[in-house]
């Protein structure tokens, strides 16, 4: 069945490969990211009914406006994937610049809350739909140098558990650890060694069917992409 899937952070990495895979399977995607040029590129490659917008999800007013546009064009989403994320350049917490630390928190946590705030109410009216919040291995463990990122991903786990308790039957919120994938974000942490990890294309082959298989009865679970 054709699904309407909302994805944040679609300009590159996991967001981009998920977008392409979902569209290839016949689903409608409404996506956003901050990079206007890449959103124009996606719009050219995947015209209506798919819809892509350049917004900053850390700005609540922008998310509200985008949500309304999405609802007007594609209706209530069946699946909201909170994928957008930032990571700080590895350093002890006290050495992370204030602006970098704040940016990680604004996108990874505040941005996710903004998306939930505006998309969940219309989903509640239909008493259906899934919210998948991307967590991390660093949302269930820690490492030195990435304290701001760990803090936000641990917060994602707690936030997801809480909203799962607030949803009615027929809906679900889950925290999903995507695994360790060769992305630009991983290169920030691991440098050249990032290339030794799972490629984006290989990840998508297992992740996309796994995500599509998540059900309302999974509400509140801590899940991980197999592999």
C-alpha geometry: globular
Mean pLDDT: 95
Bin the helical content.
40-55%
Look up the CATH topology. Rossmann fold
Low-pLDDT segments: none
Largest sheet: 7 strands, parallel
CATH class: Alpha Beta
Count of domain modules: 1
Can you walk through the features of this model?
- The chain is of the alpha/beta class and 227 residues long.
- It has a single domain, classed as Rossmann fold (3-Layer(aba) Sandwich), CATH 3.40.50.
- The protein has helices spanning 13-24, 36-45, 60-74, 98-126, 147-164, 184-190, 200-212; strands at residues 4-8, 28-33, 51-54, 79-82, 129-134, 171-177, 222-224.
- Strands 3-2-1-4-5-6-7 form a 7-stranded parallel β-sheet, with helices on both faces.
- β5 (129-134), α5 (147-164) and β6 (171-177) form a beta-alpha-beta unit.
- α1 crosses α7 (200-212) and α3 (60-74) packs parallel to α4.
- The radius of gyration is 17 Å and the shape is globular.
- It starts with a strand and ends with a strand.
- The model has no long low-confidence stretch (mean pLDDT 95).
